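Q: Got a minute? One more chain.
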Amino acid sequence: MDTYSLLREFADSWMLLSLFLFFAMVVLWVFRPGARRTYQETAGIPFRHEDRPAAASAPAEAQAGKDLPK
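A: Always. Here it is, folded:
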């Protein structure tokens, strides 16, 4: 049996099974009980320290240059 046939047989049987099991474990990990809170906390990170909307005047980058000494 040559190398190609051996690898082809392995990929057709055991590799397909192992990749399917890996996929199933990832899906179970994501949808496990109690994961919702973790994902909600992670999704809210960008909004964690915002108490009010951004100012409607100039952007922060434009105002940052005004504070530099000349």
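A: The mean pLDDT is 80.
Q: Perfect, thanks.
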